[in-house]
Amino acid sequence: WSYEAIKYAVEKGYMNGIGDGKFDPAGPMTRGMVVTVLYRREGSPAVTFRNDFSDVKAGKYYSDAVIWAKDEGVVNGITETTFEPNGKITREQLATMLSRFSERCLVSVPERADLSGFPDADKIHSYAKDALAWANEANLIKGMSDGTLSPRGNATREQFATILKRFDETFTLVYNEPVLVSQYTEPEYPLVTGADVYVAVNGSDSNPGTFDAPFATFNRAVEKVREIKATKTSGDIVVAFKAGDYGPLSVTLTSEDSGTPEQRIVYCKYGDGDVTFNNGYDIPKEDFAPVSDEEKALFRQAFADKIYVADARGKLGSYDASAIVLSDGGLMTLARFPNKFTDGTDNLIEDSAITTSLSTMELLHSQFLRRMSSYHTLDGLKIYGFLTTGWYKEMLTVGSYDFDTHEMYISDYMNARSAYWTGGLRYELQDDGTYFIWDAIDMCFCNMSEDLDAPGEYWVDTEAEKIYVYGEPENCHILGGEGQMISLDGGFVSFIGLDFYNSADVVISAYGDGITVERCSFAGCDAEYAVHLEIPEDANASGPAAGTTVHDCEFSNCAGNGLFVEGCRRNLNQFLGEANVTVDNCYFTECNLVVSNTAALRVNTSGATVTHNYFYSTSWGGIDYGRTSFMTAKYNVFDRVCYNGEDIGVVNSWDFPIMVGNVFSNNLFHAGSGGMTGRFCAYLDNSTGTEFRSNILYDCGHGVVSNGNRDNYVHDNVIINTDDSETPIEVRDGGTVITQEAGRTGDFSAVLSDHNYIEWKAFIDRIAANPDLRALIAERLPHLLT
């Protein structure tokens, strides 16, 4: 019965044998043995404390362990001056030590078992009653085979090994391994049968909406649901879409279209194949052809033979440089100026080669004039501005540019988010010979015909309504639509297995409780957020809200937030209760491409669980939790997140002090997360009650920055930085507690305990020894193996 427990304790390094290749399972545990095992579990940290016990001599195997245990409050001793290290430990003494040790490990069992049923309960000493009741409730110390508890009986070595294994299995300890790759997996979709309404691209709205005679549109299905609600008194109402591309889509769901906890309204996929809602326009690759001899005059001759063109009449809408044009391979790059910056950066959006320095602006201006002088014609030249000021990043159309005075004016500045933009922006030459951007605006030029010279770039001629691409063309999707694809004012509605792409506005905007979005994908959204879910103020007036769930979804190529969940509040900072939000097993990539100062996932509510999500290549933040309380974010991966922007974090609290109880634990921050000055993995900015623990930060710049906080705790993290990395932990206030400071140096420059050093180091070392894990790491996070 004890074999697996003994094997576990030995393999973990908790317990050794007694010599001669023997473990002595039935032998007694001594008090010195117990504290030594607990000391090993903590990594055997160096001790510099005073030895308070006269019977603990220096140089014994238990000497440092007893000193450590006394200082940590795990033991008190038999008397004030004696410990009895060789004395056999009783079961009630063992329960007391474990109870105190558990408090140090930040674990607890709030309930206490009723021990009155044990015939020898009256034998428990008063000091041990609560601890033994705790240990029994936690399933650590059970009754004996004769039904007694035996509080004063001696604990054997095999009993203690079993208790250790139960302890690890029962509690979530502070050194739990993080996910090295996201637990996000491609969802499987079950076949839906017995739906109430069916829709197919080859259907007709004059049909009855059955499986054999489906409707053709989403809107007609909504009308049918209203009819069914009048007669169907119980059970969900299910609308099933057969595979196909439906669009453009514009659906308004009112309170009349809401469900109830007992009868949800479900819009889902039926069978194999994708169900897509396209609110944009497609230009298939077969529509592209090499440019004509006449068109070649628009481009530099060295590249003209590699440029293809397609007719985009009726498909551009109000296109400007802020629109995101997609290809089957992902985001297509913009033709931009200059193509190469001095640091070798050649992708404006993804690598953010923009700064606010005057020297950079002077260099940019001189490069711009030099390149302009090489153009053989300026006729039909299209110029768009990519501008930033402070935190904000916008793409605005350049209204005019004077090639003689070098002054640039922005015609639509009033549409910009920044309050500082109060007049036409101007780029001008000063009297002292330097160049100046009013309001510290950075500028790059995009969409210039003569700069189309690299694979994946495109140029749009809005007057002729044509799109030009460099290199072999792919299928192009251009954002379109002027309204939200789905607008919902009501609750208890589910969207399952549906794919949405190409929208210039919000894809799904819902105001209601009990919303479920599951196994859906969202790609190509030029709005501030792709999905916006707001929980009403009174959703949980009588307790927790019904629950808002986003599960198994993908968010990609979004101008701003992929997902924004908010609500359940009386005003900006006063929450009414628990919103009961879950965001689990989702994939966020290439979000916040245009709208700055935001994150791929924004949570602004109370009571949320964010787990097992994978954030990859998002230029600004991963999670923005400003004005959020009681959120738990665990087992998430942030890979190459927050490589753009200033004064921002991969997880970011912003400056909202009325927020408490947020926990970030067991997450992985990797490669590029906070990898540049001013960007952090965790930015705790005037937050209250945030706990950041048991995370691993690998090859990142700044680790955690705490600024103007109260009652925040940063502990038991591992930060593995490269030699040129920045400060792992920076505290700019007196309200953040950093515990268990580093007991080791070297690659692990972190706030961690010696025990955690050993745990994390061993875990990383095991990667190389596990072929399956190593293959997965090599595929998803190869830098972790270098």
What's the quick description here?
Helix content is 16%, strand content 28%. By secondary structure, the chain is of the alpha/beta class.
Number of strands: 51
Q: For the largest beta sheet, what order do the strands appear in spatially? A: 1-2-5-24-27-30-33-36-39-42-45-48-51
Flag low-confidence runs: 172-178, 337-364, 382-397, 410-429, 434-444, 673-678, 740-757
The coarse silhouette is elongated
The share of residues in helices is 10-25%
Alpha-beta classification: alpha/beta
Which helices and strands appear, and what pairs or packs with what?
Layout: H1 3-11, H2 31-41, H3 63-71, H4 91-104, H5 129-137, H6 157-170, E1 197-199, H7 218-229, E2 237-241, E3 244-246, E4 251-253, E5 265-269, E6 275-278, E7 281-283, E8 289-290, H8 301-304, E9 307-311, E10 325-327, E11 330-331, E12 333-334, E13 336-337, H9 348-351, H10 358-374, E14 384-389, E15 392-402, E16 407-410, E17 427-429, E18 435-437, E19 442-446, E20 457-461, E21 466-470, E22 476-478, E23 486-489, E24 493-496, E25 499-503, E26 508-511, E27 516-518, E28 521-525, E29 529-535, E30 548-551, E31 554-558, E32 561-567, E33 581-584, E34 587-589, E35 599-604, E36 606-611, E37 614-618, E38 621-624, E39 629-634, E40 637-641, E41 648-652, E42 662-665, E43 668-670, E44 679-685, E45 690-693, E46 696-698, E47 702-707, E48 712-715, E49 718-720, E50 729-731, E51 736-739, H11 754-769, H12 771-780
Parallel strand pairs: 1-2, 2-5, 3-6, 4-23, 5-24, 6-25, 12-20, 23-26, 24-27, 25-28, 26-29, 27-30, 28-31, 29-32, 30-33, 31-34, 32-35, 33-36, 34-37, 35-38, 36-39, 37-40, 38-41, 39-42, 40-43, 41-44, 42-45, 43-46, 44-47, 45-48, 46-49, 47-50, 48-51
Antiparallel strand pairs: 7-22, 8-9, 9-21, 10-11, 10-22, 13-19, 14-15, 14-19, 15-16, 17-18, 20-21
